[in-house]
């Protein structure tokens, strides 16, 4: 038997400390998510409903199958900026007529659903997920277009949105637009470039230029209905494939469109899922806020993988990295999980071989981050840590099997890259609420700057300002600490969301199921490995 035998002491004081810290961090995340759910606030929502309209999340709830889960993506986008948390759009994975789809829903209660730079980044990320995983894309449209004061950050990169819509269609990935309200200017191209278009009679307004712009540009006086109403687009322009009597009817038609797609998964079917032998509730006490304290990632895996069953690869070699084969909700996976934080040459070589094996067997990879980076020092530089780390990064970069990353603890330096951080295009990336990611730890970064400043003062022959140095170190530590927490990183869409540790198995299972919508295959080759 390869079932992992847990030795986690749930009665230990340290377990209770970790659990309290994680629950406190989760409470902060929940409060911020509540801000996103609130949209533009009570008055804006009441005004919206007063017009006989549903909110973005109500539309999604009607769209997806009854009692099916909705995995919301990037709910904290724009956190810490001048824009509303959530970035005036809701994105996520949902099941519609038994078909897994990516849903993008504008939130018209936030500045009329106008798109700001974070709206664009969040939407493009959702479309990337649809493209990479071969998932139909459903757009629930009601937006006033670009947030004009920020046009310099939207207009030029925003063209990618329309490009990607057409590329989805060209790749045979269906795109469906349900238009509930305004879709003006560039926003008109969302239905214009979608495969299937449904418009709500009396509600949808789709035009490149509204009445004021048309009058300024041409002198023509026209009303909204004649310029872009659903009735006109259904009878005259032909832009609308279906005209719905109301919003509920539009969602009904959208569901029927998906039902008629004849969509089939192209990836491997999972085996029957077997629950872990250990309680997922115990994941709250495994990792705390002090990321310098190591933990055994097998204790996490024992509460995530099917039957708590792990087949470890090279268990005695490179022990700071656990590599193992397992299943999650019946899906085959290879797991790379940091054990003691630091990656040495042995760990890098072990990871490289494991990634190659996963590609040879077309097995998706799950990366569980808790690393301070690759080891430094004369002994390790002479031992080839650069070229061994480069081998691992080469393997990650050129691997073609799907990757999923979860930041459990620290994710610092090049270790973040080697463990498939955001720049390495994992299909999905999530973070636990106490995780941190940066070029290095706050104290280490401040210390490096202090050493450099001290050496500079000595070379100039000038006295070193100890008080100024202490103030600088405190300020830098505070800055890096604030910029390395999950809410800051999630606000910039550097992950796909902060998840409750207890939901890790469910989230990974949903993502693996979505990934299986497309083919799963390995790479035929890699770059040059330096010996």
Automatic annotation (TrEMBL):
Tree of life domain: Bacteria
Molecular function terms from GO: ligase activity; transferase activity
CoA carboxyltransferase N-terminal domain segment(s): 22-273
Keywords for this protein: Transferase
Gene3D superfamilies given in the database record: 2-enoyl-CoA Hydratase, Chain A, domain 1 (3.90.226.10)
Residue ranges constituting the CoA carboxyltransferase C-terminal domain according to the UniProt record: 275-517
Protein name: Acetyl-CoA carboxylase, carboxyltransferase component
Native species: Klenkia brasiliensis
């Amino acid at each position: 038997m390869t079932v992992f035998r847990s030795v986690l002491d749930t009665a230990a004081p340290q377990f209770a400390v970790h659990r309290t810290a994680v629950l406190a961090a989760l409470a902060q995340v929940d409060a911020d998510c509540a801000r996103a759910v609130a949209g533009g606030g009570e008055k804006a929502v009441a005004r919206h409903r007063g017009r006989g309209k549903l909110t973005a999340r109500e539309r999604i709830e009607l769209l997806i199958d009854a009692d099916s889960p909705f995995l919301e993506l990037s709910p904290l986008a724009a956190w810490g900026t001048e824009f509303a948390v959530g970035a005036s759009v809701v994105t996520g994975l949902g099941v519609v007529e038994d078909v897994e789809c990516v849903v993008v829903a504008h939130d018209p209660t936030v500045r009329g659903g106008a798109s700001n730079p974070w709206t664009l980044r969040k939407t493009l990320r959702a479309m990337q997920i649809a493209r990479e995983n071969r998932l139909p894309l459903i757009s629930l449209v009601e937006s006033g277009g670009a947030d004009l004061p920020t046009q310099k950050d939207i207009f030029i990169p925003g063209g990618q949105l329309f490009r990607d819509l057409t590329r989805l269609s060209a790749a045979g990935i269906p795109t469906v637009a349900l238009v509930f309200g305004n879709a003006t200017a560039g926003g008109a191209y969302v239905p214009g470039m979608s495969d299937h278009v449904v418009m709500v009679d009396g509600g949808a307004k789709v035009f490149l230029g509204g009445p004021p712009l048309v009058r300024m540009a041409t002198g023509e006086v026209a009303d909204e209905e004649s310029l872009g109403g659903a009735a006109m687009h259904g009878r005259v322009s032909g832009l609308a494939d279906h005209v719905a009597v109301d919003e509920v009817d539009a969602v009904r038609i959208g569901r029927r469109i998906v039902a008629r797609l004849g969509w089939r998964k192209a990836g491997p079917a999972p085996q029957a899922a077997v629950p872990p032998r250990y309680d997922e509730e115990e994941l709250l006490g495994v990792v705390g806020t002090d990321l310098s304290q190591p933990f055994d990632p097998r204790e996490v895996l024992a509460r995530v993988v099917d039957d708590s069953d792990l087949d470890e690869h090279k268990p005695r070699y490179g022990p700071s990295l656990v590599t193992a084969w397992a299943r999650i909700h019946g899906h085959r996976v290879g797991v790379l999980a940091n054990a003691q934080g630091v990656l040495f040459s042995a760990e890098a070589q072990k990871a490289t071989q494991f990634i190659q094996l996963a590609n040879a067997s077309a097995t998706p990879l799950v990366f569980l981050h808790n690393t301070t980076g690759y080891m430094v020092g004369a002994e390790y530089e002479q031992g080839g840590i650069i070229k061994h780390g480069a081998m691992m990064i080469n393997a990650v970069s050129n691997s073609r099997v799907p990757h999923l990353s979860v930041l459990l603890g620290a994710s610092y330096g090049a270790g973040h890259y080697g463990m498939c951080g955001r720049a390495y295009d994992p299909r999905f990336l999530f973070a636990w609420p106490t995780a941190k990611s940066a070029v290095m730890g706050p104290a280490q970064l401040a210390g490096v700057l202090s050493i450099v400043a001290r050496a500079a003062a000595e070379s100039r022959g000038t006295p070193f300002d100890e008080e100024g140095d202490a103030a600088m170190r405190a300020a830098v530590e505070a800055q890096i600490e604030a910029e390395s927490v999950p809410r800051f990183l999630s606000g910039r869409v550097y992950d796909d969301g902060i998840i409750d540790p207890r939901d890790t198995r469910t989230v990974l299972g949903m993502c693996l199921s979505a990934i299986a919508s497309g083919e799963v295959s390995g790479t035929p080759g890699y770059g040059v490995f330096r010996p």
